[in-house]
Amino acid sequence: MTYEQAELRADMLKALAHPVRVLIVDALTAGDRCVCELNALADIDQSGLSRHLAILKKTGIVSDRRNGMKVFYHLETPCILKALTCAFEAVKNHARRRASLLRAG
Amino acid sequence: MTYEQAELRADMLKALAHPVRVLIVDALTAGDRCVCELNALADIDQSGLSRHLAILKKTGIVSDRRNGMKVFYHLETPCILKALTCAFEAVKNHARRRASLLRAG
DNA sequence: CCACCATATGCGAATATGCGCATAAGGGCA
DNA sequence: TGCCCTTATGCGCATATTCGCATATGGTGG
User: Fold this and answer.
1) For A79, which residue in chain B has the nearest alpha carbon?
2) How far apart are CA B1 and CA A40, in angstroms?
3) How far apart are CA A27 and CA A23, in angstroms?
4) What is the DSSP pairing of strand B70-75 with strand A62-67?
5) Do residue A3 and residue B42 have CB atoms under 8 angstroms apart?
6) Going from the N-terminus, what domains does chain A have, and what CATH number goes with each?
7) Does B78 have pLDDT greater than 90?
8) Could you give the CA distance from residue A33 to residue B21 in angstroms, rounded to a whole number?
9) How many degrees, rounded to 5, is the angle at CA A39 between CA B11 and CA A8?
């Protein structure tokens, strides 16, 4: 893999690597949501949420669509979920390994 | 998903979200490598590489094993590759969409 | 046009990340 | 023990992220 290819992948991962953005992507798997609905996900300023959405949009993970006064966000890359699930499984495995090491040692 | 669960996933993604670390994980899919081998992957200081490896190790993505003077790193979570592949496909889709928008508009 | 609602952006401050240099730490070998 | 090789860590600096506040923008309805 070239460095440039690695950079593309890293940019994608970086766009996802924030708890609020993970929550957003998770919520969008159930269907499109407007900003006002997503705002209930985390205890965060509205402007902050808007910025997180802009980050996801810039990398193409989500797209947006206006409907009257509201803007709805749509998950463009559902496969990104596999990444999240994998990450979660890996975290659990890691925790389990650490726990058994603590028991043994 | 709770905020705590999202934080765990985000930590995992953050650990991967750097081009050098992506290169490391990619290289380790072909088998264990010592630091001196990995050092050839990118034009980076040896201390920097060591730090990147420490980040991957802390989250459980890789583990290390001493063999004589050398330390070998091992990929603990090969499923993480699916995340990388997904990220890459998503990047390509995004680029394609942007390109066709440019053509149309 | 004006008031209002939903969303986005400018700005500054706090914090985190990444880097290189120097150096420490762990281990092999004479 | 002393020297060398491989890898890790302390430190300071530059840059990037994140956040909240204030405010701008786009759209609706009176």
Assistant:
1) B86
2) 13
3) 6
4) unpaired
5) yes
6) 3-77 (1.10.10.10)
7) no
8) 33
9) 40
